[in-house]
Structures are given as structure tokens and as C-alpha cells.
Amino acid sequence: MDNPLVSICIVTYNQEKYIYNCVMSALLQAKDVAVEILIGDDSSNDGTTAIIAELAQRYPELIRHFHHKTNLGVGQNYKFLLNIARGKYIANLDGDDYWLPGKLIKQLALIEGNDNIQAVYTNALCCNESGAIVKIFTGKHPTTIDLRYLIEKCNFLPNSSMLYRSEHKVFFMNLAYDLIDYRLHLHIAEHGTLGYINLPFVVYRENSVGSMCADKGEKVRELLWEATSLTLTRLSNKWLSLKTSANFLSRVLLHVVKTQKHALFLHWWQVVTNSIPNNRLFLIIMISWYACRKILLFIANRICVKLCNCMRIINIR
After folding, report:
1. Helix H segments across 62-167?
2. Which pLDDT tens digit goes with each residue over 218-255?
3. pTM for the structure as a whole
4. Domain limits, the chain
């Protein structure tokens, strides 16, 4: 594609079980939108490279396959793709996720002609290793999101749903340190509003082999808090800092309950309260409220998914 409107950036490493569906879901978007599909194959040593090469041979006008001789890591691999992306917009797609039909055209309808909207996200469905849908990624959110809302709610935006204006890629390419997608979301929100579509157009694979969240969970948490605390320092709002800190620690608390790694909560309690001083008693109350709310939402989410699955089985019969 000589003049793509959207550059789809796919980073992958040893994802032979998922990469075919991932790339094919991107190709389906080409029916509605002028796209180029850039695939950074980070020195895969399983069947991933062969699958991508075959698809690139079948669709040479749409797919550009880059097989790195040495492993660059997720961040450098993504920077490589951004450097060659030609589209007016950049769309992220992780190699273990896939899109549903109509995603890009729906997002473009929201961002085109609205100069204040800098990026558009959608909700997602979460599937397990076998591909079965297990939950909805997040709840309902406003159709336009500002920085204050984003920082308080933490990282609820699916990275593989992200479509953003290409001028923001310079921010990421100039960073000399590790980056979590949340830092990019926050950066963009500092320059305008984010559009959000309350429908799932992405299927996100939970804890898949090779995913950063599965392999480097604590590193992800450190990067998440680093991005959060830097933004809170710039905003200098005590009430927002309290709510955001409580929300972050409630997520740590639920993880500790699940894993029984009790020292982890003490560690993060010290990190958060040292970096952002708060009323500690009120912070404990807020943490409890956020944790209870998350548990109730989780239960409601699972019930909703089970009901939908039951209805699908009944319809099939």
C-alpha cells in the first residue's frame, strides 16, 4: 500500500499458535480501510516466521515482514516498526491477540474530523489459552476520556485496541528506557482527549506464552507505578493522588490474595506512601472500597459471560 491511512504494527516472538489469526484479523480490516501491516518478528525460533512469511507472500501489497536476526525486545522491536510506519494513524496489535471485523472503520469515524481526539480505544473480550471467552476486559467508560479520568482508573485500556495519531510516535521513539503501554496512553491524554468505544472489537489472550504480563508481572507493575507517579507529580492534585494510589494498591491487594505473596503488599504500600504522601487511614478505607468494588464487578462479569455462552449454546441447538 503506497499511501496507507493506518499503519498496523504487530510485534511478535514465538507465537506460532496465535500469529495466523492475528494477521488475518488485520487483513480483514483492509476491506474497509487503506492499511499497511508491519510485522516485527523478533528472531522467533518456532514456526512463527514461516507462518508470517507465507502470509506476506500471499499479500505482498499489504504485509511487510521484518525478521530480526537478533532478539531486540518488545520495546526496540516496536520502535523499529514506528520508524518505518507511513500511515496517518498507528494501530497496535499484539501477536497473540486478534481484532473483530469493523474495528478500524469504527475508530476512524470517531477520530477523523475531530482534532481534539488524539487516540481511540475499544473494549475487548478476554480469552484463555484454548481460545474460549472468559470475561470482558473492562466495564463501561465515557466515550471521551481525559487525563484525570485515565490516571484515576489506571490502565484499563487494551493496548491492542489502540489507534492514535502518528505524530505521537516520536515520544516513544525518543525514550531511552523501558516503556509500558500505559505511559504512551498518559502522554497522549496530556495532549488532548481519548475516544473510547464501549463495544469489544479486540480479543485479548490472557497470560499467553511469551506475554509480558505473564513473564514479567512485577516488572510491569513497577513500570505502571513509575508512569503513574510521574504524571501525578505533574498534576499536583492531592485528592486525585489519593484516589489513584488507593486504586493501584487495591489491585496489588487482590493480586496478593490470589498469590499469597503477602510481603508484596507491604513493599508497595511503602513505595506508594513514600512517593506520594497521603492520609494513611483514609487511604486504607479507599483501598478496601476499591477492592470490594472490583470483586463485585468481577463476579458480575463472569455471570454475564456464562449467560452469553449459555445463550449461544441454546441458539446452536
Report:
1. 74-84, 103-111, 147-153
2. 888 999 999 999 899 888 888 899 999 999 999 999 89
3. 0.86
4. 6-210, 237-316
